[in-house]
Amino acid sequence: MKSKLNTDYKIFWLGQAVSQLGSSMTSFALTIWAYKQSESAMAVSFMTFCSYLPYILVSIFAGTFIDRASKKKILIISDTAAAVCTISILLSLYRGSLALTQIYLVNAVIGFMNAFQSPASSVLTGLLITDGNYEKASGLNSFSSNLIMVTAPVLSGTLVGFSGIWLVLVVDLLSFVFCMFTLFFVKPGENAQTSKTLNFHAKRKDREDIEFLKKEPGILYLMLSLALINFFSRLTYENILSPMILARSGGDTGTFGLVNSMLGAGGIAGGIFVAAGKGTKNPSKMIYLSAGISFLLGDLLMGAGRNAFAWSAAGIFASFPIPFIMAGQSALLYRAVPVNIQGRIFAIRNGIQYSTIPIGLLLGGYLADYVFEPYMASNHTGAVFLQGIVGKGHGSGMAVMFLCTGMLGALSSVLGYKNRSVRNLAGPV
User: Fold this and answer.
1) Residue 5: its pLDDT value, please?
2) Would the pLDDT of 41 be above 60?
3) Is the pLDDT of residue 109 over 90?
4) 152 CB-near residues (< 8 Å, 6+ apart)
5) What pTM does this model have?
6) Are 258 and 308 in contact, with CB atoms under 8 Å apart?
């Protein structure tokens, strides 16, 4: 295996990373705007829901089109649609007519386009990585994603404070221009593209994705197990982490910011480690071992912790293994899935693995408000016992939820790896 990623992929990665930074800055700015306008957490949550729902529904059916179409054209059209949505928001701001319903609609459109953009980007990545450095590419993606997670709110907040939300939207549009510029120089392997085109005209290929999953059930079981892992993760981290930290720290926004920074820092460190590594002989083991460590060390310490130091350490333990999970999955999929059906398999993967996220987001808030918080405020014997672990007061119920996801997530990781079909998936070639 070569030690360096090729130039074409680096150009592609840079363009996509800059575009993602612009999109994340806009998303953060619009979230703040929406909350100020509505003073409703549900209104903000519905923004995320509007993005995920069309993404999941369309992903199941988008794969065949992605395999047949030019990947670069899909990315250009998807990014252009997102840019048009940004322009529409910018014009509405100028006219003073921006409303929450427009943001919901924009998010739905972007979610729809992402159902094509995400798997097309994944397939194009595989075509550009001609030397098999899939883990390193995944590590580089994890590095940029986590760096964006840390820097986007800071940059967006600074620009909004300096000149208003319109400046963030302009920067987003500039990032789109840069992304289009880099795509112009990207040239995926023509041989792979040509061989795929020749395969599309045979009718028997229309169900090739289903036939492949029947032949390689480990790929399907991998998707299903990661969907379960996503569910447990979304019950807590993307849903109740913020209110739990604020409640248990007495509303200390500094502590909240520190914990979020450590989550991003852990992911950045993990991405660097994966990108600099030499891969693994057992990607399946890397996936589930990393997931188990994230749940056990991250969730359990996050729930039992009662100060900024413990929560920060938990954030690092939770996020550092994530790039290893992504790298292991990338290695398995790129090496096991024929290139002519990768679009369909990646689309199916997105539809399955991310289908549990909206459920986790909605259920997590309900369980926190109506089940765990009231339970921990009672004098029930079980509540008294748990108070000895997580403490008392507001936020203790959400802390118990972290204990639950830590144990259930770790158990789901063990069960996922114990599946024989998953363990037998092909390793590096």
Assistant:
1) 65
2) no
3) yes
4) 21, 24, 25, 27, 28
5) 0.79
6) yes
